[in-house]
């Protein structure tokens, strides 16, 4: 769980979105996934997702979405994994490069080895 998912404002607003979804489901109103715009089956579990992944934890940036991949939607868990992997690759690319070996330290390998006046 990332820091933005432990944020008190996110937790409060996610509870509000879950309550709204529960109210709609009890009333028989279809709940739509913000990601694919198709309904979330009433028996299917859902996640409260960020519409803009870099956006804040406000109610305007949170909505119900499919938890797992469906035939029409990538799903929150799969997309989150893809975003996390991309962020890790980006962070790895930003790290300092590994120290390089000085070309002068390998000169003994490029010159013929001589013992006395003979080449080996």
Cα radius of gyration in angstroms = 27 Å
Number of domains: 1
Largest sheet: 2 strands, antiparallel
Number of helices: 3
**Topology as a string of helices (H) and strands (E):** HEEEEHHEE
Average pLDDT score: 81
Main-sheet strand order equals 1-2
Beta-strand content bin: 15-25%
Structural class: alpha+beta
Number of strands: 6
Shape category: elongated
The residue ranges in which pLDDT falls below 50 over 5 or more consecutive positions are none
Question: How would you sum up this structure, described in words?
Answer:
- The chain has one domain (about 5-95).
- About 15% of the residues are buried.
- It has about 120 residues and is α+β, with helices and mostly antiparallel strands.
- The strands form 3 sheets. It has a two-stranded antiparallel ribbon. A two-stranded antiparallel ribbon has the order 3-4. Strands 5-6 form a two-stranded antiparallel ribbon.
- The chain starts with 7 loop residues before the first helix and ends with a strand.
- A hairpin with a 2-residue loop joins strand 5 (about 115) and strand 6 (about 120).
- It is built from 3 helices and 6 strands.
- Helices cover about 35% and strands about 15% of the residues.
- It has helices at about 10-25, 75-95, 105-110; strands spanning about 30, 40, 45-50, 60-65, 115, 120.
